[in-house]
Amino acid sequence: KSSDGGSTLEESDSDSDSDDDHQSIVKHQKAQMQAKKQMLSQLMAELDKDPVFLKMKTSTPEQIKRFQTTKKLVRSPPRRYTQNIRGPPLTRRRSSMVGNVEYPDGLNDDGADTIRSRLTVRFTSMKRKLSNDDPAERTPKRRHVSSLSQPHIIIPVEDVTQEMLDNIAEHSVGKTYDTINGTSCHQCRQKTIDTKSCCRGEDCVGVRGQFCGPCLKNRYGELVENVLLDSEWKCPVCRNICNCSICRNRKGKCATGILIGIARQQGHSNVRAYLENLENETKLYS
């Protein structure tokens, strides 16, 4: 009996604890709700003081609807022409109507004269271009020479020494690269210390006439030793037969890459002869 009485006391204590916890949770929730109600009442009191809200509150539904529609119809003011406005864009059709150009209202005579003079200059320049459309009447384009280009140094034949001839590279594998003391080849664009060719043309610029031994032999079938001893030799660039990637891109052609192996398989000793043979064949079959 004593044991049963102890268990009933423990159960009653646990029930009382759970009731106390539940009551504390309910009190906390009621306090939170009361705080939210007070905050909401303060916000509504501040909102009642706003004139815009009072106007919307006192206005009828028809007035609110009218206010919303008028707000949507408000647009930015139209753009007005100013004194420094530029003329209309020049097209092929407008260029033939230079004398009948209509100018916007509010544009003074000085502004109209400036626009008319600009259109006249553009029209005359376009007319000159169209009249010079005949290939026979075209003036040859001058090749642009940059101010940063180095002056072309022509080495006389008398100054060519045996040491320079012995320093000519025969294969590209054994060349010594030097970015400071080396000279650049126009074909492979590599700076090496071996002797390069020298163009004797007065119109040659910079390092265009410098070709190393392997490039000049494999690409054009010429030897650097022979061209150094020739006082009238001109480089492939000056003869308009250069087949490097830069010169071919300027002519609208793609780069050839390493073609010496294919050229020799087709029975040619250099790339220039192989390319010329291909051009002749395409002309025959076209």
From TrEMBL:
Residues 1-36, 127-148 are annotated as: Disordered. It comes from the Eukaryota. Residues 130-139 have a biased composition (Basic and acidic residues). GO terms for cellular component: cytoplasm; nucleus. The keyword Phosphoprotein applies. Residues 10-20 have a biased composition (Acidic residues). It is found in: Cytoplasm; Nucleus. Keywords: Cytoplasm, Isopeptide bond, Nucleus, Phosphoprotein, Transcription, Transcription regulation, Ubl conjugation. Residues 177-275 form the Zinc-finger domain. One of its GO terms (biological process) is regulation of DNA-templated transcription. Its main location: cytoplasm. This is Zinc-finger domain-containing protein.
